[in-house]
Every structure is written in structure tokens, then in C-alpha cells.
Amino acid sequence: GQTNLKSPQDIQVYVVNTNFTLRWKYTGNDTNVTFSAEYRFEDFMTNGTEWKELPGCQKVTHLECDFSSAITEYYDKHHVRLRAERMEEVSPWSSIFEMTPYDIAQISAPGIELQSINGVIKIKVSPPEANQVRKMWIDDLSFKYNLVIWENSSNAELRNQSIFPTDIIDGLAPDTTYCLKVQATYPWEDKEGLFSPVHCVKTTRKANVLFCATNVSVLALNMKFHLHWNNRYKQHVSYNVQYLIGYLKKSYDDYSTKWRNVLECENITDTQCNFSSIITTASGIFYLRVQAMNEYNKSCLSNEVKVDPLVTNEIGPPGVKVDISDVLLHIQIYPPGGSESEVMSNHYDLSYRVLYWKNSSNNEEEIKMKEIKQTIGTISDLTPSTLYCVKVQAFSKAYNKSSHFSKEECIKTPGGRKSLGIVMPLGVKLLTLQEPLQVSQVKKYLQHGLMASQTYNKIKYVFFPSCQPPLTIEGFGGQLFDIPFLSTTEEPIENCSIIETIMTEELNQIDFKDYKHSKQSSRDSGNYSNDDDTSGSKVSEETLEKETV
Question: Biased composition, Basic and acidic residues: where in the chain (predicted)?
Fold first, then answer.
């Protein structure tokens, strides 16, 4: 049992892809010492296996060994231990090193190929485990690549950028030697790989082709996308706008033949084109370029531009309509995009920033703001006989975007005098009279078509609203119901209701249960005048409408 051999110290396992190396330190002065390792692993079927000899790490004379062939389960927990040996004498086992291969594995350097042509450097990257049968990283398409490039000079500045497996490095000085290296990353696991060896290449001069499209840019508003470019050529030139679906650039295959023409932008002479038809999904990435052709059928390709639809697109101002009902200012917002506003609403979770103020000669009047998610809002605490103005801005917090403000809309609040509201028998919108009325005047309005001629004699009670009526009743949406008057056939007359409200600081609201009952009970009742003399009714309604506004 007793031995003078010391145990190995500082046991470490290094994993790069599926390559496993065991390293350690030995502080003894013994000669002719070798080292042997054992391992075991845990899986879901068993809590642990028996210790086994670690292949590649038996009777090793150096302080490291390669045991890549022994490990095939990369997600299971493994234990490794080591001891020193000399003839029949062995040291105690070292402390146990515990590892899960996938967790400690590093990503190896990718392979790269370079080509200097026409003032740019074309680069092709191969994945870290290219042509390997056993792989630690199953999905090569999940790799992303970081490029570091610099001029081969004493005071060079490093330039970092992300690149695709097949890409073009531009913006370089001509006839200049550049050096670069590439690193693979695995974003899902937050892993960064080893850099490739440094490669150096000299750039060439770019050919000056006058008919090439230059300064290619994208302008997008409310999901309408336009490509613009400049033309320096004085002779005839035509253009094709071409696009590539973004995911193809993540492929390691050659995608140069996958570019497609935008049908609406083929063989055009304008220096702009609407390519909205290709944006079939708002979550995808697209790349666009312009192919120019001169009168001799020679072609030239412009630089590419990237389009991430929801990021590239700008939000236009919303539409706004305002209305007044006694003590409330109603605001109706129409999402950006006009008749196609649904497109914007579907893609952005829009909110609205409402600014409102008293439009008076007092320059110190405070501008107030409300933020709302809905397209309908109300503002209370209004001053009678005052002109209020409103403008609205749409914004998206998720994309950190906001529109310009809408055009200002202004409306004057009514005076603070007694008002009378009348509910039509069939649910016709609420009319509000702002002038004091005598009973004889009420009868006059009722007699001229606002209600059946007998209705005013049947009024039984006056009720105060208990909830806010819909905006359509208040005049936002026009008529609440589109129901013609009933025929003039004599029928039993049932009760209708008349609302009389007094301007107060707090708005009373209609109880819709009572309203529904009134509407229902009136369905089969009421005689309506069809006399030719209807001028009084028309004047009264027009007057009421004007005064309400």
C-alpha cells in the first residue's frame, strides 16, 4: 500500500468541437513515471457507470493526452481521474474532474477563402466543423461570423463587421494590402469561437462604369416601399430592380443565381420604383440592387441595400376627427395608411399621443397631452364657448418609431346655457338644443316630424343618463340606425321619452337598458306626419345640427 509517488494536480479538460484533450501538472521528481486515466459518465438510464480506462490516456509519458475517440455522448455528465504509475507502484487517484462536454466545448476557427476583384474583397467562409462526421454543433446555419479587418500598416485601425458565409467587403482603398481574420459565434448558446489564422490580400482599382446606378436607397412610408437611385449617364440606360430573399444569404451555397427581378420594375427608365409587391411578409429580410443596361446591352450591378420591412418603414401621421357633446370633447383617430390603415394596425402595436389646447390669444395657454391605445378618446373639464384644437401622433414603442403629428383639428365648445336633448322614437341620433325653450317651442319641434304629433302629450317622466352614450349618438359616426319611418297607418301610440339635461360640472349618462326599452316599445307605434309642409322640420334640424357642432 504505501507509495512515494505523488498524485497529478490541476486536472483540466479542453474541448474544441469534438476534440478532447486532458492536461495536468506533476510536481514529483520521480523518473520513469507514466500516467493513466479513468472515466465514467452519467446518463438518464443509470445514475452512473463503473470506472473504465480512458482510451488514449494509458501509460502516457507527457502531461497531456487526447481522448477524443472515447467521448460520444456530448450532453451527459462525465467524471475523469488520473494517477501516476512506475512499474508496480501507483499514486493515489487525483481529484475528480467533472464536465459536460457540450457546456465546456469551444468553437474552432472557420475556414476562409479570399478573392480581390474590382476594388472589393469577396470572402467565402466554411463552417467550423466542415466535412466532419462527428459534430458538436449540429446546425451550421446557426453560426454567425465576425470579421476583423485592417490595413497592413503600422498605425492601422481595426474594423469589425458581421458577414455572411458568402459576402463582399467593400469601402476599401484601392491598391492597398488588407489583413483579416474571422470568428464564428453561436448566438443561441452565447458562445464565441476561435479566430481563423490571419490572411492578407491586396485590393484592385474599381472600374468606373458611368451607367451604373449609384446612391441606391429605400424610402418607405405606411408599408409602401420605393427604391431610389442616381443616374450619371447621359445616354440611354434602362434598369431592372432585383431582389433576394434574406435567408438565402445564410446559406453556404452560391446564391448568385437566386436574384429575381421585381416585375413592376423591369426594363424601366425612371430612377425610382415601387417594390411593395415583393414584401409578402413583414418579418423577413430582403436585399435589393439595381441592374443598369446601356445601349450596347452591357450591364452593371449597383451596391445592395438591406430592407427589414418593419424597421425600414416609417409611420405616417394618423387621421383625426373631433366633435363636441356638452362637456366632452370626442376624438376619433384613424390609423396611419388611409384606406389601407389595417396594414399598419396589423404590423405595429400602435399607441397615440394626443395634444390639445385652447386656441386663444393667450400665448401662455398650456398644451396638454394624453397617451392612449384606443382610436377613440374623450377629454373632459372643458371651458364653455372656447375653441379647442387637437393634433395626434402615432408611435410604436417596440420599434422606437413615431409619426409626424396630424393636421390640427379645432372645434368650439357650446355656451354654458340650458340644453335639451331629444331622443327620436326609432333611435335617431340625439339632438341637443343650446337655447332656452318654452313648452310651445318643444311642441313645435315635435309637431314638425321630430316625433309623432301626439308624443309630447304622452311624456310621463324625465330621466338622467347613467352611462356615456356611444359616439355615434353624439354625432361622431352619423346616424346610429338607418331605419325608415314607419307607415302612416293608425296604430296605438306608446310612450316615448324626452331627455332634459342641465349643463353641470359632471356629465350624467344614459342608461342603455331604458334606451333599449324605449326603442323596442316604439317599434310598432307612432304616427308620423307625411304632410307636404315639412320646411319647419328641416329648418329645425339644420339649426340643431349647427348649434350642436
Answer: 539-549
